[in-house]
Amino acid sequence: xxxxxxxxQFLTVLPIELKIMPTAQxxxxxxxxxxxVGLIIGGILFLIVCLFAKLPIFLLAAIITTLWVxxxxxxxxxxxxxxxxxxxxxxxxxxxxxxxxxxxxxGPIGVLSLVxxxxxxxxxxxxxxxxxxxxxxxxxxxxxxxVPSILFxxxxxxxxxxxxxxxxxxxPKTASWIITGLVLLLPLYWGWQGLIAVIxxxxxxxxxxxxxxxxIDGITGDTVGAAIEISETVLxxxxxxSYFYL
Length: 246
Description:
Helix content is 74%, strand content 0%. By secondary structure, it is an all-alpha fold. The relative contact order is 0.15. The model has no long low-confidence stretch (mean pLDDT 94).
């Protein structure tokens, strides 16, 4: 169970204490539990909606969006901000882009990316609550946490050192593909609406992978975080659009 606790500690702010330093192999196997951690995050969000269902929808949507950010410690939002800064400030140059990503400070483009993504998620959560579709929110963090597996399995990791390199080298490939396939089937519970949402999710991921390879010949930890945030937003957007048009 150590890989599960590693995943829970890494992806959330829940008070998990590991008794020993994880090995590279355990960190790699922890990726298999990322979708499960996503389900836990989604389950908590759904529970809060149920507990505070009598509150005004605007306030409840704000609470859910804030709690979502807090539960993840803003981990992937940090990657989004760093990636946005690097993409604009890198001027198309690979080395400059990678150097800017290492800078811990957040520039104006990074801040703007955070505002935009959080505003979109707030609006999408608002519509989910208003249309009584909050059950779908349980799956959104789970599918979002498939992104690291898919990218690590299909895309070169460009940095020689770091956690991403360890994860890439020790990721159980067969088990990861099986889990990815099973989790992608879960939205089909909603029929065509769920299928369209998954297609939108995968299309956004394919596009982001293409953009990453074109600019830096692969991925970094920051780009993976950015892909998680963007693909989750696209997943929600596609689900809601299909809800109104199907």
